[in-house]
Amino acid sequence: DVKVTQSSRYLVKRTGEKVFLECVQDMDHENMFWYRQDPGLGLRLIYFSYDVKMKEKGDIPEGYSVSREKKERFSLILESASTNQTSMYLCASSLGRQRSTDTQYFGPGTRLTVL
Amino acid sequence: AQKITQTQPGMFVQEKEAVTLDCTYDTSDPSYGLFWYKQPSSGEMIFLIYQGSYDQQNATEGRYSLNFQKARKSANLVISASQLGDSAMYFCAMREENQGGKLIFGQGTELSVKP
Predict the structure, then answer these.
(1) Which among A42, A48, A106 has CB closest to B44?
(2) Cβ contacts of residue B41 below 8 Å, gap of 6+?
(3) Which residues of B touch A102 (CB under 8 A)?
(4) What residue in B sits closest to A106 (Cα-Cα)?
């Protein structure tokens, strides 16, 4: 079974803090993704990565950065957290874009509250 | 324009009955994949079923089946013999081949199964 884990289920931070959200997958997947989910807005892609040290912007990258130093780990960084970044953050991974199905498997999510 | 449309914000179904969750999509890419995910109140996105644009047969996976009507650009999820544990949010998503591994999600349908 594919296993995607996220470092925290719940996180509370203060405005202006630097926040790290960690995601680890154990299936040697090439692709990794970060989404945020907000009521009424659905899931929106923040950043994704097709390979180690590679990253591409998604639909809403502003205020975020990412790091992928190892294949199994993809970190989302909020350089200076703001209240409008309070949200549910979901990490996902998939085998690789050349595969026809390329199903994304998700972690349990991190509910981040910025006060 | 919305790429993925789920017109039913909420649905009710009696336990043991079948239910259909609607999804329509919009793409000009001839090669694409359609996915359904389930999100229980715990927050994790669980992959249910996949349909490729070139697949001749409708996908089935246990009690889940996908009613794929390519000309109408619809990919409805059918859940047979509903169970109380099926109560959750359900998301339809699409991956276009020319967009690599990126998924586009619909707004979701909240399904409630009544005993």
Answers:
(1) A106
(2) B88
(3) 33, 95, 101
(4) B45
pLDDT score recorded for residue B1? 61
Place of tokens 């299936």: A27
| pLDDT higher than threshold 70 for residue A15 | yes
Average pLDDT, chain B: 93
A18-36 burial: b if 16+ Cβ within 10 Å, else e: ebebbbbbeeebbbbbbbb
The tens digit of pLDDT for each residue in A45-77 reads 999 999 898 899 999 999 999 999 999 999 999
Q: Quote the CA–CA distance of B39 and B15 in Å, as a whole number.
A: 19
Q: What are phi and psi of A84, to 5 degrees?
A: -75, 0
**What's the pLDDT at A84?**
96
